[in-house]
Each structure stands twice: as structure tokens, then as C-alpha cells.
């Protein structure tokens, strides 16, 4: 009784309430899209905007109108006060759970499920809504997140709106001569500590050694195609990075900061994408461009992790790469402007996408405003 009265008293106190945002990396993903949309609509004048950081403030642009909370603030009275006084939470990587009924927590997710990761997260009672790319994923994500399917809302991912923007000119970013550019986002396989290795998988599929890498590099050079490879940050690729490769470039997250371009705008500006068992495959369908999937170790993934979806059905729009020769065939398709799986890709898109447009940020923001009573 006294506890409930104190809650009402502290909420009654004058002063602005808070909207708390979280993402990984900080100030990114769908969360930052909603944050910027709320600011455009003037909600920063009614509420204090707060970013719950995973890294330090030194990498964050100065903005006196925004509160930045670091890890050290999480257990301090100041941080707890903000969490208590928050009107809602908008996250996409970690969870922020509500602590009283006058709050609403929205989980925008880090991506739709392909690999089966059910049980990696604990069941949560204090998250009221989670976002799905389309209705196809409602039951899939409910199982993966240990959440009630009634909490799902399917409106598309705000971060994907950028795929409908005009492509950026990527030539100045690399200072190399090429006609077409392909980006490769391999999923995580094994790292330096080997703690999450899928048995039987190489650190990087297809390019197992220097000889394979050099063969592919020569073929890319002949076809005037640049391959940009963004490995998982924990992946150990020292064996290949030692080689001087003219048409294979490695980048990390710092590349996007340095060149003042978002990772998704960069990917959308490429002529094609290569992935494997990553949810970026769904996102890239909005680009209406060729996509390939490295399928060399799919049986290892079926056996060790399994898949949350019918992998063969949802990825039938991707060109399958099992060998180096397959890789070369896909490079040739891009170099010659061929798109052999366009029809199949269009069919998948109708299933896995809520809409083929750039309005997900607007839809999701409208939903948050309504449900949180902002």
C-alpha cells in the first residue's frame, strides 16, 4: 500500500518524463530511426530523451538536450530514477522492462530469425510489444524470444527504410577502379576463443586459405568487380588479411563512422549482396537486387544449431554458393547484369515483408505513440 502510494507520488512530481532508447551499437538500428522521427514531430519538447549506452560517451556526438547513461549509471540512483520516471522504453538489442503499469516497453528486435536461437534469452514479463518484419514471423519470433505472440506488431523494420533511398556513389570510399561492387556479410562461425564454433565450419567459408582468396581476387579483377567483406567483429581472419588483395576489401564498423554513411545505406548502394544464414537477407529484398547465400556448410548449421524457419523456402530467392566455382558464377552474373532469381525473390518478398516501401519508421512511431500514450 505504502509502496503504491510512493510510486504515485514520485510520478506526480513536476518535471518532464523520459523516453529511454537502447541499441547495439549505440545510436543505431531501428531505435535511432524512431528516436529521430519523434524529434521531428517535436516530442523532445514534451519528454527528455535518454540513450542507455553500452559503450562510452566519448564516441557519442555532443547533444545537451539528450541524456546519455553509461554502464556505471545503471545501478546508481540517478539511473534508477530515470528508469522509474520513464514513460516508455524503445530498444532493439537488450531489454528494458517496465517497473510499473504507467510504462510501456517496445522491443524492436535486432533482426528476424533464421537460425534457431530459442532459449538464448530469458522470458520477459516487462516487455509489452515486440516488432516483426511481417506476420510471417509472429509465431517464429514468439518462440525465439519466449514471448506471447499477442505482443507482436508487424509493421516492418524502421532501419530498412534507407533501402529505398537513392544509392550513394561508393567509388570515392575505396579509391579503386571497379564497375560493380558486391558486399559480403558472413554470419558468425568461429572466433579466436572458438567458444561458439559450429562444428565442421571454417572461419570463413569458400576462402579457406590464401590460394582460394587469390584465385577469387583475380577473377574479381578480370570482371572489374570489387568485393567488400564485413566479417563479424569476433571472427579470426588473420590468415587472409595478411594477403595483398586488390579486389577484396575488409571493413569494420569504423568504416561507416569514418565515411559518414550508415551500414544499411552502404549495403543498399552496392550492386549485390552475399550473405548466408543472416537476417539481413530479408532486409535486402527491399533493394530489388541480386543476392547470394554461401551454402557450403549449411548441413553443419542444420545439425548443430538448426533453423527457426524453412530455410530452403525463404531463401529460394538467393543464388546458392557451395564452391569457389559457384562464387565465380555469381560474380559473372553481377558483372554482366544478369539476375537469374528475380522471380523467386519477388515471391519470397511477398511473404516475409510487411510492405515494399519506406514507411516503416512512420508506422512504428505511430504505434509507439498510441500504445504508450505519448
CATH class of the largest domain: Alpha Beta
Distance between the termini: 28 Å
Radius of gyration: 22 Å
Query: What value does the average pLDDT take?
Result: 88
CATH topology heading of the largest domain? Rossmann fold
Poorly predicted runs: 191-197
Largest sheet: 7 strands, parallel
Describe this structure in words.
This protein has 374 residues and is an alpha/beta fold. It folds into 2 domains: 2-159 and 359-372, 3-Layer(aba) Sandwich (Rossmann fold); 166-352, Rossmann fold (3-Layer(aba) Sandwich), CATH 3.40.50. The chain is 34% helix and 15% strand. The protein is built from 15 helices and 13 strands. It has helices at 2-12, 29-40, 77-85, 138-145, 171-174, 210-222, 238-241, 253-258, 263-269, 280-284, 298-304, 311-314, 324-336, 342-352, 360-372, and strands spanning 18-22, 48-52, 66-69, 86-91, 104-107, 129-132, 152-154, 180-184, 225-229, 248-250, 272-275, 291-294, 319-321. The strands form 2 sheets. A 7-stranded parallel beta sheet has the order 3-2-1-4-5-6-7, with helices on both faces. The radius of gyration is 22 Å and the shape is globular. The model is unreliable at 191-197 (pLDDT under 50).
